[in-house]
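Team,

Forwarding the record for the chain on the shared tracking sheet. I've put the sequence and predicted structure together so nobody has to dig through attachments.
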Amino acid sequence: MKKILVIFSFLLINFISAHTCANETVKCPIDGYKVTFCVTMSMSTHGSYKDFQKVGAIGTYYEELINTCPKCSFSGYLSDFKEKYTREQKYLLKNYLSTIKNSKKDEVEQCIIAAEIKELLKKQNKEIGFIYLTGSYFLRTDMSKSELRINLQEKVRNNLVQALANREYELSSIASIDYLIAEMNRRTNKFQDAIKYYDLAINNKDKQDWVEEVAKEQKELAEKQDPNNDL
């Protein structure tokens, strides 16, 4: 009986901490086709990689953030499908989407399309940067697409640098964004730029508690010219 209770408790704990989601169906704002998102309801994280990718009982959390209309390939967050677009914006989007093959898109392709749509609509650079960042997560273990991952990480860096220039972040977030820019630089072999941004993060008086320790640790890799992209 005791053994059964232990097993039951283990299963119960894992069930409670597992990723769960609920379906929500919306209409594509371009062609009205129904698209179903599985919206995350709960999950458990146990830390993250050095590029902010969450780890733990997160299930398909990242896969469910961005979705794509199977008919026209419009891609984005659930909120993007719910947004009301002007006639001019729809015209721009239809022209852009007409250049994309109407085939099933993998998660990386969905992220790229979603980011390019936000670029076309002149959304904030911080939004664009984090979609490219999400796309890069899917390539962490795919060695055959390491160049694509680096390309996405360069886009992350460029957008976050511009976001800082546009003052899109609150003071309390700037150090962590400087750190992330540094990481994108280190991972793409721009070691001197990486060191510059690690130092900005370390010396920021408004930084969160974790920033200094992690930034110093990663700065050591940059000083050794180590572009390790697995961390």
